[in-house]
Structure formats: structure tokens, C-alpha cells
Amino acid sequence: MAPTNPLANWERLATSFYRKVPVYYSVFDEDVELENYIVAGAPYGGAIALYRDESKPLRFRDAQTSRSNIDIYSRSGKLINRLNWEYGAIRGLGWSDQEELLVITDDGTVRRYFGLYGDFTSFSLGNGAEEYGVRACRFWNSGFVALLSNNQLIAVSNYNEPRPRLLAQCPEGEVASWSLIPPAYTLSRSVEVLLAVDKTIYLVDPTEAEDKVLQNGPFKHASVSPTGRFIALITAEGKVWVVSSDFQSKYSEYDPESRVTPRAVEWCGDDAVVIAWEDEVHLIGPNGAAARYYYDGTVHVLPEFDGVGLITNDAYEFLHKVSDVTESIFRLGSTSPASVLLDSINLLDKKSPKADDNIQRIKPALPEAVDSCVKAAGMEFDAYWQKRLLKAASFGKSVLDLYNSDEFVEMTEKLRVLQAVRDFQIGLALSYEQYMRLTPEKLIERLVNRREYLLAIRISEYLQLPADKIYVHWASQKVKVSTVDDEAVCKLIVQRLDGKPGISFEVIAQAAYDEGRSHLATQLLNHEPRAGKQVPLLLNMEEDEIALDKAIQSGDTDLVNYVLLQLKAKLPLASFFRMINTRPMASALVETTARAEDTELLKDLFYQDDRPLDGSNVLLSEALKETDMPRKQEKLQLASRLLSDSKEPTVVLHQKLLNESSQLLKVQEALDKDLTERSEFLGLSLNETIYRLVRSGYGKRAQKIQSEFKMPEKTYWWLRLRALVAKRDWGELEELGKPRNSPIGWEPFYNEILGAGNTKLASIFIPKCTNLSAEERIEMWVKCGMIVKAGEEALKAKAVNTLEALQSKASGPSAIEIGRMINQLRPKK
Amino acid sequence: MAPFPESDAEYFKDKARRGLLDLLEGVRGKKNLVINQGLAGPVGLFVKFSQLQEHGVDRVFLLENGNVDSSQRNVVFLAYAEKIRQVRAVAEQIQQLQRNSSIEHEFSIFWVPRRTLVSNNILESAGIIGDVNVAELPLYFFPLEQDVLSLELEDSFADLYLHKDPECIFHAAKALMDLQQRHGYFPRIVGKGDHARRLADLLLRMRKELDAEESSGLVGLSYRNLLPSAGIESLIVVDRYVDFATPLLTQLTYEGLIDELVGIKHNQADVDTSVVGPAATPQAQESSKASQQFKQGQKRKIQLDASDQLFNQLRDANFAIVGDILNKVARRLETDYESRHTAKTTSELREFVNKLPMYQLEHQSLRVHTNLAEEIMRNTRSDIFRKVLEVQQNNAAGADPTYQHSLIEELIARDVPLKAVLRLLCLESCMSGGLRSRDLENFKRQVVQAYGHQHLLTFSALEKMELLQPRSSTPAMLIPGTGAQAGSRTNYSYLRKNLHLVVEDVSEKDPNDVAYVYSGFAPLSIRLVQCVLQKSYVLSLMRGGPTVQANTASPGWLGFEDVVKSARGSTFSIVQKGDDKAVRARQTLSGSNAAKAVVVFFLGGITFTEIAALRFIAGQEAPRRKIVICTTGLINGDRMMDAAVAKGTFAATDS
């Protein structure tokens, strides 16, 4: 086949060129009457959905055609799948970036078809959609807006967790046309809607509807450019206006000289607008320059971000702006270095020496020329010109001493991939720019959706991308369609996927389970390396115990808690307890949760587990929280009774102390009644109670309680000492100091009283501290300021040095006294 | 080239800040922020309130107070999704606002550190999952210092040892995965304790799962093909329960004592203004606070971190020498300040004036720390402090604990704080393998009578945590795992001898052993780390001879297996291998002379003294190694007791 002229189908529009590249021929059979269909194309040259337009008259044929379907075709016209449609009137048909088909019906139900083969999820728009009915929908790459018949707008901006949100209230009136600005291009970071009502246009966002105050309406079409910077409008007179998206400036006006309102207004890149009637397409550039195309049959416009696809029964064409590099190479009379380089290839083929002359001529600009050729190769759809340009680049770079060939190599790889998927069998009409934006991973996803596993695997191997998802998808399909028995399928899958990294068996198992093959699902799950992933499916499959075990294995407490939550809701309490009590982590988590919110469950658990002490402790905590005294006592009694069977010494003690506590409460109640108006004693500890009694001068009562509760003497003495010191009751303290011995010795008396500042009383106790050394006692006297006494002590101990030290501290009579003592000791020496 | 671990602190700080602010940015307009109490402090470590304001935060509420109002349309919640209680609190408050408020609120929840299934479930059953925007904020490590990364999980100790809830192990594993993703896999994981083992197992499992996920393209390219790290030598995991005794002792470093007496939370201490005086007014950023805090009895927040040079000098020193250092600094400051008189030329004078703000700052910090030190001194000189310390030191030294009992009884009768008493009892139990049951019963009765019968619960909790036990009981059978016989309890009396825990002649001024942090007792936890890092030193201690040079290169526990067996829990040393060829290739590329980092992870909490001791080791190893300290949170004896102490009283709570 002769190479096509690279300039074929170029159209000049003002200063730049546009070209219409035919990609596929004979797309649809004759009997697909495109004029009667609504057509929606997935972005990035993806699948197209056809649905019969119900407003068009229907030519009766047979029952088959009269049933409504949504047909999914590739761009080359290959029927991928046919969805039977019996859910009511379709008001919106669109695609997401992930090539998911969205179908919105009259009553506000949204169906999201993923994977092209009829799997779907659905949700409802709510917000009055059911009541008023959906009129129309507009889509962007990750969401859509629905217009209700009462002019309400509902936006959905995320399909994974759809959360339909009402936009601001819109004005009344007939909506002539409308359009949206995707969130990525708005200031508010939320989707905004242009609504043409009456003569003007409103800009509606979630908070308000702003009137843009225009006069030339009603506008029959409004379309926003791919970057959201410009808006194309069709005025009431049928003129095309291009304005900035803030409606502040008008850039161009064009009169198509047609009274019929165009069927579609789309942007071709960011610089040109395409308006289309049934069989006529106008391409309008800046300043009203235009090119016109005429067709024999109906033509549909499928917008892309870098151009538009034009589809007719005969052909699928891609209309886009000619890139600068392409233009500089192919433009007639071009003298750019790249153009010269390409020319030298021809000369080289003819073995003409001029090839070298050319190279020498452009030598300084050769690197750029090579770059340009590489880039231009990417822009071409025709393999001949791709090769030609790459050959030129290769020739050019062979002349260069130093050139980084990475881009050249990458381009060859990219072109190979592009050529493979553009094949009419696959039908992905991807332009280079689109491929760059789509990314290879997503491209492989699309191939997988089309069940082109072999090609997908080849490409991922070629590009060194992970292929596990492809295998998983394949295996899931295998599970769905194969009819052989479970063992064989499992074996086949495991064999085939053996040694492939990162295979998610959970997904395959889920597919098997969805098919109702739960045995197969369990078998497959055993091959899943990630424990956490298995759990939700196992729960679904009612494999509760395994699910719990796997969750525990994963170490993820959240997962365990989740399983426990489900099981608790599902199982009878007894079997729930049985299930957890052999698993320490599970029961610990149940305990933790229950402690905070469900003490009854806790009690049951401890009862079943035969842990009386824990059970009793729960009751004790409850008693603490109880404000009402009789109820408090009641809980304490219950807590004590739980322990009555046990013989273990610690438990016995525990019970005894519980009873003691209830006894103490009784005593305190009585004290409160007798001694004070307010509740003063209730809730104190035993020690505090006695301390307070002594301090308030109720020594007798304190004594009585001490004996009643068998408080150790030592403790009792300490309490009395501290309380009396606090009370500054020196008389009573002296009284207390009368006996020869005290269980706590006399040093504490000295310390505490000294601490309270009564040196005189403190000093009384010094001689009683017979267990201490003389030095210590001397120190004590000194602290009381009684140097002479200290001296006497030293004298007794015959410590001359100490006495001398003391003398230096003393003054006046006491110094003399000390001196006397020193002398007393000296003579003996 | 992989970034150096030094910058970990900055890296995590930056990452956390960017994460939070980006999420806040995502909520349009002004908003009220409702934050869980346990997060409020840690968040303050990496972001200032003014920064929050710049991102549209109007007011901040605490989740626990439940008082968020409807002054803003946007309400943002920030809470731990792992804590069911907090999730419920969030759900309740949203419902409440929806009911009571006249305006239609826009709710956002940022779950820390991840969105959980349970949180979804709770929001769903509350019927609000459709009304809220849910996002994740993966906060794991909060950098406290350049060398200290903490998860700041307040309840981790109670969760782990009392409730047996292993959530924080998972949390820790995730955090360490973060670290590994930054530096490559830890070439070796060494550890002690059953929980530590679990953590290591989780790390291995997560790595395997990540490998599985990596190739399935679920995660970004950055995680691919991780190799054993070139910059990190190993990870050492120490389970707190291996050494419960150390934190029960009173910390004797400066920072430790501040923590014991005042309490340090998230690098801040609330000190009474009567001690340190009101906040200095000239500091612009604190002026607003200062005006409120002039009154007596008010608390003043003191920032305690490395930004305060003086504090940095003091923090890890034994308190005995803090006075000296303060004096020295005061004198230096004085002479520096006096240098203005000697300044002759104008340029000298200008130099002095330029330094003036620095002097003032230093001066201020000197005043604060002098006051603090005096306050601490007042405490340490008290009779009770000395008696408590006496009991502790005797226990640590291995003296017969029964001789201490009358002293403890006296302390009870004198109504010293309950936690101090419990610490002593627990210390004895840990050090000598439980109390004689007669003694234990006796103490139980006395404590309950002195502090209230609600503390029956406290004792149950302590017993469950195996902090306070009767001597005869054998919980060994209850603990699963290897070495149940030998490793069910840490045998301090054996280890004291063999690891030379008691160092009599340690110099506080010029420390030669980590024992300086407790004035003569080397924390077991730290000795264990030394068994891995400083084998020759520990061997020389054991044999009493000069430093032996052999064995230094042997990895893991090698050479100490028998000794380590006497500490509680399983012992392990795992090598994480990577693609050999790649490793060798990198070795030849980068050479191996760069200092390697050792990550030490304390599961269940670390004390300031232990941090000081690790820094001491790091100082000794300086040219060859660095130590990065990671932990679930900071702990001391009082906080351990807090986990157990019953909160309620029998008082009729009528109001």
C-alpha cells in the first residue's frame, strides 16, 4: 500500500492546522441506524455505549430489536457486550475515567457498570430525585451532576463512596441548556454548573446560584473547554460565542448560517469548537475562522481532552490540532532542521550524496532535529510515517557524537504498545497524548476489562509492569465460567499462578463465592498470603471460626474487633463465649470493649469463664459508681457473695476486705449522723476516718473503731500523732507521750512536733529515744536550740570534740556552760 | 543514597505537619476542630496553633469535654480510630450537633492513624456515615527529640499488660514499617520478651504482605524492592515487662526527677508559678499566655527539649551534679555579661549587643532551671523521699526485703502518696520474685485501710499485670511461648550478679557506667541492650577484668544466651535477608565506613533515665554507631501505677 500523504486532511484554521485522521473504516453495519441512537464514548478512546433514543420514531422490525438494549462497542465497531435494559427510562448515559458505564434512570437510580461485562453496583440519588424525576445528566471524569425536573441539581463526585449532594437552589424557569465545570478547574474545588435559564446563565455551586446577567439567551448550548477556561455558547440567534469562563470577555463570534440548532457543541482541544448537525460538522477556530466537513450519514461527536472522535457508520475519525513538531516537519515548504533530516532519509534511500550535505547543513541543530522527529513519530497514527520519522531520528543520532537515546527507545516502546491496542481487533483508538495521560497501568486495566489477557500480559511483560491483576482477573473469569469440579479448577488456577508474585487469591475466592462455589472459595483462600484480606470474605461465607483465627493471626486488632462485633451480633451469647474463651487475644479485646460499654456482658463472660474474682471486681466498680447508699451496699454484698465458694486464701482475704468495706460504710454513716450535719466521714478510708476523729477530738470513738477493725497499734499511734500535731493539741500529745514505750518509738514524735514548730514539746521526747546514738541525740537537741542539753549529752558520751564544736555554736551563758563541761572532761585526760 | 537516620525526627515531623495541614486545607472555609485529648498534646509537637489558624481553624475543642458548639458550619474531628470509645464519642457528638443545631453542619473526621473497619461499622450503625467526610491521617511516630521517636500512646502500658490488648504492638509495627520504608529493612531484629517477639513477627509478616502487595501495584513505586538497610545496623526490641523494676525506681537524673515530681508530657511540664515564676513577658509568642498565668497557684508550661541549651546540658546528668553545672553556667554568664566593660572598640561593643538577646534567653532559662532544681532539692531532702529511696536502693542492691517492711508500714501510716507505696511493694515483688503471701496479705489490708477499700481493684489489677504477686504462685503455665520454665519471670538476683547491675563506685560527676542514672544501679533493660552492642564491656564487667576485645563483632545475643535466658520472655535474633546480589552491589558502591544506626524500641514505654543511659552508650559508641530511641510512650513508676489504681471512691458523689 502506498503511504498516505502526511498532509492529507489538514485544514488551516487561522494560524494553526487541524487534521482529521481516519482510524477505523466500516465501523457499523448498515442496520445500525446511528441517527436513532444516543451515543456515549468513554474517555481515552474507550468503549462506546449505544442506546436507542426513545424520542425518535421506531421502525418496526421484530421483537428482538424492539427490546431495549445498551450496546457496548469498541471504537472500531466490534460489539463487546449487550446489556439488556428493563429498568425504565434512561436519563443519563456516561462513562468515568475508569471506563465504568453510568446509567441514570428517571427515578434517580444510578447503575455503575464496571468491567464492561454487566457487573454493576447501584445507588440512589435521593434528595427528591424519585419525586421529581431526573431530566438529564452531565458527566466529568470522576463524577456527574443530575438535573431534576424541578431544576434541582444533584452532584456525585466519587463513585466508590457515592454521596449525592444537593447544589444550591436554582431559579425557576425552563432550562434551555446546561453544562458543568469539573472540580479540578473551579476556584471552589467543587463542581460548578452552568444553567441557561431564560435569557441568562446561572453559575451554580454548592452554596449559591449566581446570575451572570447575559442578554442573548435563551442559549441553546453551553459547553466548557477541557481546561475549564473557555465556554462556547449558542445564542438565541444561532451564533456561536466563545467567552471566558468568568463571562468577563468574549473572544470570538461565528455565524454558522444555519437555522437548525446544532445537535452537539464540543471542544476540540482548548482552541477550537466543533459544532455538529446530523451530517455536518463545523470546526471553529479563534476569531471565527472555520472549516466545514460534510458527511453522508449521521455523525456523532465523542469529545476527548485533545480532540474529538467523529463516528459514522463508515468510519471512526480523530480530529485534532496538528502539533507544532508535526507541523514544522510536514508543512509545505518547511525548512526546519527536522524537516531537512526527514528529507535526507529519502536522499539516503536514493543513495544520494546530498544526504550528507543536508546533515552538514543542519549540524548545529541536529540534536533538536532528532528530538523533533522522535516526538513527531509519536503523533502519527500511520505506521509508515512512524517508521520513517524514527528512521530519520536514528540516522540523525548516528551522526551525533553524544546523544541520549532514552527518549528514542521509550518512543519505540510506546509506539509498539499503541500500535498493538489500536488494532481494529482491540479497538482502543488512543492518541499518544491520551496514552501518556492514561498511563500504561490503566491501559492494561482496560485490556483486562476486554478480556484481552494475552495482550495485556505481553504488554505488561514488555513494559515490566506487574501482571498479577491480569492473572487474578483471568482466574476469576475461569472460576465463573468453568464447569469442571472445584478441585480441578483450584488445581488449574494454582498451577497456572504458581510462582507469580503478588497474586490476590482473595479476589478470586470472592469471585468463586459470588458464583456460589463456597467450597472452591475456601480452598482458594488458603493460598492468600495476606491474612487480613481473607477475613471479610470468610465472614460472608459464615466461616466464623476461621475468620476469627485469621484475624488474630494478622495481629490487626481492628480486624479482630470487627470480627467480634459481627459475631456478637450474630451468635447466641453462649456460643460466642465458647468461641472466644479459647482465644486469649479475642477475649481480652471483648473484655476491653465490654468494660467501657457493657458491664452486663462482662459479668456474663466472667461467670461463664468461672472467674469469680473478676466478676466480683466488676460489681465493686459498679458499687463505686453508685450514688445511692443502700444500692451501694447491695452491690458490695453481691460482690462479696460471688466469692463465698472459694477457699483460696487470696480470695478469702479479698472477700473479708469487701465485707470490711461495707462495715466501714455503715460505721461512717452512723458517724455522719451523730457528729456532723453533712456527710463528712462517708467514703473516707479507715485511716482517714480515725485521723479525722482524733483531729476533731473524738478520741474515744477513734479508739473504738480501731479495735473494731483490728487496726495495728503502730498505724493507730501514727495516726494519732499526726492528727494531734495537726490539731496543735500539745496537751494531748504530752499525755500520749507518758508511757515508757511507744510502738513506733519516740523519734517520730520528736520529728513531727519539731516540724510543727514546738521545740519545747519536741525536746521532751529526746531523752526517750534511747535507741539512738548519742550523736544523733545531740543533733536533736541542737535542732531544738538547746545547746546546753546537747552539751550534757555529749558530756555523758565523753565527746570532747563534739563539745568544742558545740561551744562555737553557743553564745552567752550556754557557751560558758559548755566550757565548764569541757573542763569537766579535760582533767580526767 | 538513603537519607541518614538523624533526619528521621525532622522527616516525621514534617510529614505529620504536612498531612494534617493538607487535610485541613481540604475542608473549605473556617472550621472548628474537635480533638481527642490524647492527641492534642502530641499534635502540639509538630504544629503550632497559629499554623492551624492559618488553615482556617477557628476554635479547638477537646473531644472528651463534649462541648463543641455550632459557631462554625464546618466541624472537623481528630481522633484515634482504634479506640472504640473515641469513635463512639465522635459519633455521638455528630448526632447531637445534627439534632440540636439550626444550621446544617459539614462534618469531617480525620482518623488517626488509619480508618478502621470498626469505625466504619459504628458510624454506619449511628446512621451518619453518609453525612461525614472521612479521611485518614497516618500519624505514627512523634519525634520528641532528634534521637527519640515516640508513638505517644498514653494507654499503651495499661493496654498491653493489664488489658492484654495488643493494639499498640500492631501500631508499633506499622510505625516501624514506616521507618523501614524510608531506610530499607532492618538487617537484624534482636529482641527480648514475648510482646517483642510478636512485634518482630508482625514486622516479618507485614513485609511479606507488602511484598505481595507491591507487585500487585497497590502501593507506590517507592516501596518496591526494598533491601536490607545500609544505614541501619539492627533493631533491638525490649519488652517493658522484661524489666518492670527499673521504672519503679525513682529516676535520679535531672529530667527524670522533673518527671517524677512534676510530670513531663510531650516535652512540656506544668510547673506551679510559685516555683518558676510567671512566664516571661518579653517572649512574644508566650505573652498572651503570660497574662493569664500571673496569678498564684497557676501552672506554667515549661518547654523541655533540646532547643533549650542549658536544659540539654542538664537533662541527662545525675541530679547530684546539677547544682554544680548550674553554678558554672551562672558564673560563665556573669563573666560573659561583664565583658561589656572590657569592650573597647565600637565593633566589640556591637558584638556584645548582638549577643545580648542570646544572653537574655540563657539567663531566663538559667533562672527557670535554678528554681526547678531548688524545688527538687527541697523534695529530695525530705524525710519521706529519703526513706523511699532507702527502701528502693536496698531492694535494688538485693538486700533482704523483709527488713524494709516496717519502713514501708510506717510510710503507709504516714499517708505518703499511694503510688509511692505501691511502687515499693511492686519493686520488691519484681526484684525478689513475689512477696511472701503472709506479708502480701498484711500489706493489702493496711493499704486498703489507709487509702480506701476501692483499692482492692488496684491490687487485682497489679496482680494481673504481674507486678505484685505472692511468691508461690506460678503464672508460668499461663504464659504461652518458649521457655516458659526459665523465662516466665525475670530473675533479678541471678542477673544482678551476672550482668553486674549494681555498680558501687559509679561516679555521678564523670560517669563510667550507665548505672549513674540510678546512682549505682544499672537498668537491666539497658544492660540487655549493652549485651548486644557492647559485648566486650559487659564481659569485662562479668569477669571483673580489663576490657576484652574478643567477640565484639558477634551479632545478636551471641555470647549471652545463657544469661539472657534468666530474663522474662522469649529471646530472638532474626536476620532479614534481601537480594544478595543487590546488597553486595550496594556495599561496593557506598562503602561501609559511614556510621550505622541502631534502632532501640522500648515496647510498653521508656523512662527518661533509660533514655539518658542510651545516650550515654551512644556517646561511647559515637564514631561508629548512632542510637535512635523509639518507644510506645514515656513512662515512670507513677504512670505504671496509674494504670492499676482504681479511680472511684466510696464517697457519695452528691453535687
TrEMBL record, chain A:
Segments crossing the lipid bilayer: none
InterPro entries: VPS16, Vps16_C, Vps16_C_sf, Vps16_N, WD40/YVTN_repeat-like_dom_sf
Residue ranges occupied by any Vps16 N-terminal domain in the UniProt entry: 7-409
Superkingdom of source: Eukaryota
UniProt keyword annotations, A-Z: Protein transport, Transport
Residue intervals of the Vps16 C-terminal domain: 503-811
Pfam families assigned to the protein according to its UniProt record, in alphabetical order: Vps16_C, Vps16_N
Database matches in SUPFAM superfamilies: Nucleoporin domain (SSF117289)
Function (record text): Essential for vacuolar protein sorting. Required for vacuole biogenesis, stability and to maintain vacuole morphology.
Family per record: Belongs to the VPS16 family.
UniProt-recorded name of the protein: Probable vacuolar protein sorting-associated protein 16 homolog
From TrEMBL, chain B:
Coiled coil: none
Transmembrane segments: 597-617
Organism domain of life: Eukaryota
Pfam family, one: Sec1
Keyword terms, alphabetized: Membrane, Transmembrane, Transmembrane helix
Gene3D superfamilies, per the entry: 1.25.40.850, 3.40.50.1910, 3.40.50.2060, Syntaxin Binding Protein 1, Chain A, domain 2
Signal peptide from the UniProt entry: none
The family this protein is said to belong to: Belongs to the STXBP/unc-18/SEC1 family.
Protein name per the record: Sec1-like protein
Species whose genome carries this gene: Aspergillus lucknowensis
